[in-house]
Amino acid sequence: xxxxxxxxxxxxxxxxxxxxxxxxxxxxxxxxxxxxxxxxxxxxxxxxxxxxxxxxxxxxxxxxxxxxxxxxxxxxxxxxxxxxxxxxxxxxxxxxxxxxxxxxxxxxxxxxxxxxxxxxxxxxxxxxxxxxxxxxxxxxxxxxxxxxxxxxxxxxxxxxxxxxxxxxxxxxxxxxxxxxxxxxxxxxxxxxxxxxxxxxxxxxxxxxxxxxxxxxxxxxxxxxxxxxxxxxxxxxxxxxxxxxxxxxxxxxxxxxxxxxxxxxxxxxxxxxxxxxxxxxxxxxxxxxxxxxxxxxxxxxxxxxxxxxxxxxxxxxxxxxxxxxxxxxxxxxxxxxxxxxxxxxxxxxxxxxxxxxxxxxxxxxxxxxxxxxxxxxxxxxxxxxxxxxxxxxxxxxxxxxxxxxxxxxxxxxxxxxxxxxxxxxxxxxxxxxxxxxxxxxxxxxxxxxxxxxxxxxxxxxxxxxxxxxxxxxxxxxxxxxxxxxxxxxxxxxxxxxxxxxxxxxxxxxxxxxxxxxxxxxxxxxxxxxxxxxxxxxx
Amino acid sequence: xxxxxxxxxxxxxxxxxxxxxxxxxxxxxxxxxxxxxxxxxxxxxxxxxxxxxxxxxxxxxxxxxxxxxxxxxxxxxxxxxxxxxxxxxxxxxxxxxxxxxxxxxxxxxxxxxxxxxxxxxxxxxxxxxxxxxxxxxxxxxxxxxxxxxxxxxxxxxxxxxxxxxxxxxxxxxxxxxxxxxxxxxxxxxxxxxxxxxxxxxxxxxxxxxxxxxxxxxxxxxxxxxxxxxxxxxxxxxxxxxxxxxxxxxxxxxxxxxxxxxxxxxxxxxxxxxxxxxxxxxxxxxxxxxxxxxxxxxxxxxxxxxxxxxxxxxxxxxxxxxxxxxxxxxxxxxxxxxxxxxxxxxxxxxxxxxxxxxxxxxxxxxxxxxxxxxxxxxxxxxxxxxxxxxxxxxxxxxxxxxxxxxxxxxxxxxxxxxxxxxxxxxxxxxxxxxxxxxxxxxxxxxxxxxxxxxxxxxxxxxxxxxxxxxxxxxxxxxxxxxxxxxxxxxxxxxxxxxxxxxxxxxxxxxxxxxxxxxxxxxxxxxxxxxxxxxxxxxxxxxxxxxxxxxxxxxxxxxxxxxxxxxxxxxxxxxxxxxxxxxxxxxxxxxxxxxxxxxxxxxxxxxxxxxxxxxxxxxxxxxxxxxxxxxxxxxxxxxxxxxxxxxxxxxxxxxxxxxxxxxxxxxxxxxxxxxxxxxxxxxxxxxxxxxxxxxxxxxxxxxxxxxxxxxxxxxxxxxxxxxxxxxxxxxxxxxxxxxxxxxxxxxxxxxxxxxxxxxxxxxxxxxxxxxxxxxxxxxxxxxxxxxxxxxxxxxxxxxxxxxxxxxxxxxxxxxxxxxxxxxxxxxxxxxxxxxxxxxxxxxxxxxxxxxxxxxxxxxxxxxxxxxxxxxxxxxxxxxxxxxxxxxxxxxxxxxxxxxxxxxxxxxxxxxxxxxxxxxxxxxxxxxxxxxxxxxxxxxxxxxxxxxxxxxxxxxxxxxxxxxxxxxxxxxxxxxxxxxxxxxxxxxxxxxxxxxxxxxxxxx
Lengths: 537, 1001
Known about the structure:
By secondary structure, chain A is mainly alpha-helical. The longest helix of chain B has 8 residues.
């Protein structure tokens, strides 16, 4: 009798065990979309916007502090930007946000690239993804040299991607631009049109083709100092662009930023100007002009004796109001590293210029206007003026390849274009007077030796990239040997020059320690094997 | 030799029909000679004699638990069980605790042990809300074997709580307990008292030079003139920003008496009142208790109210038995969300913060920090939680050998959390201070950031079911060998759902409702989730006993959890494997086995036991292994969009596997006047689960996966001495020494470390798991030192550092010494508990902030006006390969001025060297002191009062920290995770004094 009871209960359990698998099959996340459902169309706009957040915040600040364009308001803050000024702690956490902000988002472009496409219907998305990936990938190479690429973006399939030679990555990016153009050309009639999912060119594929050419051109121009086989390669590739079409307008990403919540706001607006409730963030008070940039914009109003400021004497830049709010009619800044009472931070007043809302394309300091106008304008990925300056430089460096490029007119049109870019929802700034004024100033206008013209190109690039992509400028500054424009170190600097690259971020030393090159703080201040290849000579 | 009665080994069917009279004395293991005959409740409510328990455990009884009238059971357990480390991680009106049993066996995941209340699994929340008064005892199961029957749930150990039940006498018994206690802030950071408000070069208010600096009445930093400067010291001068009436407050320029931060805090008051009524007979009982707790924290307005109703009853009719209990807990808390402490810490010592009580943000003592009083009121959180737990326990005895039990519980909770912040627009406030440099400036221009109004509301609902169906057998295999077994099935079904709404910018001020939010936060950025998980297990338990001296226990469990059900991306089928957990252990009592050892007057008791356990820990949540897309920031904007998940979990993740060997010894000498308990163990955890930082180049930034293994080993020695024992006077002492270490043996291919917190609040240091090192360690940027240990500085006097993080200390102590004593003279009882921990370190955010604010003592140990030369520093005057170290005479930043000093401490000091902020965490704490007086029965004999006792007590009465810890923080505090980082967003530690009264009728 007892035995039977025991058996009955065992059988009951056995029956339960069979049914138990269905009972546990409830582990599908009802709170999020499943990865299978993610199509290129769903991913593409978010991938651009998310990556741009780094360009519009971290890279904006990094480039402007490094270029001595921005300074910390030391009247209101104790020890602002200490690490950036002293350069004594350039370590694995120094601006690691650039790497950590860009890299993981590029995986979304890689996902689109490898999306099933046997019927070629995804051609447009794949081409655009390749272009956007190359645009940001270049910055990683330019700031870090060798980085993971061929084994990157594979998620869990390869957790420790090896590092590729930066030359190989550059070549691969250049080839990708040709591949992207080919994909667009070969897209079948029923290929998916990107339409509103294309937050850059609204589905206009010929614009993507010109952007691909522009990025390829930019990559190759960065290689201006290479020699030997690489120089041959560069010249061959440049030759393929001699008659190519480039972008014909500023390139914005416009995801439809909105003032409905902080997260939906334009990231630069949120970080430096106002939140969705109209309150001004602390960073607005923290950031002011550096004395260096203020001097350039004000026409050396303080009569600073340094020779590199003399070219600005008496020429007030009409764009200065678009960069900073003026105090007493001039841009008033702080010398990087100076604290109140020290030279560069006089005690007569503690009011300094803060960022002009024109930085994000708004023509008023009213929060509502800043929000609506900056949201509508979107994020400036690349300006036409930058391209024109690159072309002006190409006219000087490679007249044989680009016989049609007229350096002076490209240079002038870049300045004119910058006045248009900084229009801030009103009319373009008339740059004609300024162009005339600088035409006699070697290093500032198109006059003098070739070297002085390089200086003029870089000086103008510095001013016009301050608002949109100063990290590009900082990389260009490195390319030209940290000479142009003259950019003094902070008063508290402990290094003889600015870093030539960044140290790999802590996340690499932690998560990819077997592959990441072990470089020290000292390594980034001198040219060596860790310097990006285009800057090793 | 008498045969062991089957009742001892048998499964006692209910949680409540145990040998109650004996259990009541469980706490006094030293006093009762035959305490080991007593039954303890273990896993699944299975009861056995302490002799038969094969793994390490400790039972804490209600007296010991309630000696200092603690608010929660976790607080009450602190320092009472060796190996059970309970850290109060954040003091507050509802303090948070972290419980770690025997160190870390995992590098991520929760360390909190499983809580079992009256035979069924409960949540840590319920555990912390249950009034300690209704607890009969807690069996802390330290050894893994004791928890093996719970499988993955029990890998952090188990706290088996048995609640009180009614009397067996046919009378009604009423108990009253009451306590009132007072709490004060304790151990506030020691700050310099020689310099006051100001900053070098900040001359827009006053351009007078005082020894290289300026006096600024609205500075938050103490980088101003010295109090002994004859030109300003002691003078009655302005302080703070102008008040609403346009006038400045005035104060003498000198350090205020006492501690000006402490002045901000009130005395917190807590009232705890409760009563219970019980009655019962031979086969039935009821127990009803009501408790009310009202706590007001040292921050005025922070309040907690809790009402607990607990009802328990049972009845036995023939072979059928039924017990049930219901507890209903209603708790409301009101707290400020403002980061008050960080504001307070900056207050220079010449400011009496109380003067600014009613000044609001606009009239604060400084324009660079918020007024803590205003901040306290502007941002507040309210929470209302109602939970109910119903437990039912049924038993049916088929015959003498076979019975069936069912224990089930249903926990239901609803919580509503509301947070609101009022707006403060500093842009609209214009300073009215004619004749000064700040006249006409807006408050924002002076540094006060605006505060955006916000409102958020979250409703959540939880429903957890837990049920065990167990078939029990007991047989005498021979006259000497007893056998008992339990086989059963467990089902767990947990469900929770949360709905949130909220946003920023309230259109109408002070109207806290979602309809009043102008900028609603997108729903996908809020917590709107539905989570369900289930678990299914079969288990078996076998106990064998040879007479009364040899016991064997074997357990097995096969468990399947829905959280491990994996559906590979792109497919529809789930896979889920059952995971086996098992254990075996032996206990042997030579003093009962061998005639030669019996009745030995010196060694009266000896027990040795050992066990081997394989268990696991599935530290992943429901749906974690399902691959999903996430929203980009701010979407949907124009288009809806998604991104790949940057923080995925390996789809085929397995539970962590713990293999534990444990050995225990218990010695009793001189009729247990001296007892020695020892326990040693080693747990190897394979397939460690952690969300480790991955190379961002992979496209993911962290992956939760099985990696590597960790070895957790340690031992505990408990010594008990009862030097005196008589009817009127008894003195007992207990000391314990426990030592654990968790050695990270492997972290998977190519991974040498896992960062848990990489960058602690701007300080370049964090908490890591490092291969080959103890876990967790603190790593950070370190000073470069010469062979003599001197700090090396560069030409500008700034410390030279390496660019990569190095090990700076460890989070867990080398060892913990526990001490308690109990002295009773007639009705008077004095009890003291203390512990000492050393060898641990923590990263102090406070030290960094005090450095910034010029409040550190080290900032006055030199002449500020001459600049700061890092003490004992050297410069390398040789080459990099052939260094020659010569004493350094260069001030930091090569700036031998007051400005150079201030600029260094308020800038580079904070962000360049992590080592500077790693503080020795050694602490000696007197946790509890209580003195209770039991009114003699003779006095009460003529009244209806059966017993009456009054007491005074103190918690956290005294603490001594390491010399380098200038009260920066209580080393126990931490902001979540595995500890090791004390931040300024927490409150200072507190101490409490109270009075209690207990009466029964």
